[in-house]
Amino acid sequence: MMTPSGRRSRANRAYKDSVIRPACEVCGYNYDLTVHHMKQACDGGSESPANKILLCRNHHGIADRLSREDKRIWSRKRMVHLIRTWERSAGQGQGVA
Fold first, then answer.
1. pLDDT score of 97
2. DSSP state letter for 52
3. Closest-CA residue to 63 (of 13, 91, 26)
4. What is the separation, in whole angstroms, between the first and last Cα of the chain?
5. What are the tens digits of pLDDT across the range 22-35?
6. Under CATH, what is the fold of the domain 4-90?
7. What does the DSSP 8-state code read for residue 53?
8. Which residues, in sequence order, are bridge partners of residue 9?
């Protein structure tokens, strides 16, 4: 019997393999990529590709932080925008707009 985390890992590998040119959707880096779920399973999120975004480890960490602060970030475009905004403001000691 496969555990839920095993199923998720398998689904994430399948998602990464399905992307034609796998790269971080924020910076374009194409090594050591991870899958971020915009709406977590515990919040009712699914394993569908529409709920996933491919990110480098650095941007995945930022996405996790942003997701904890605001559980309503369910759009890929909004997530990329917020990560870029966070990066610009991080050096200036400001929060996300």
1. 44
2. E
3. 26
4. 45
5. 899 999 998 889 99
6. DNA Binding (I), subunit A (1.10.30)
7. E
8. none
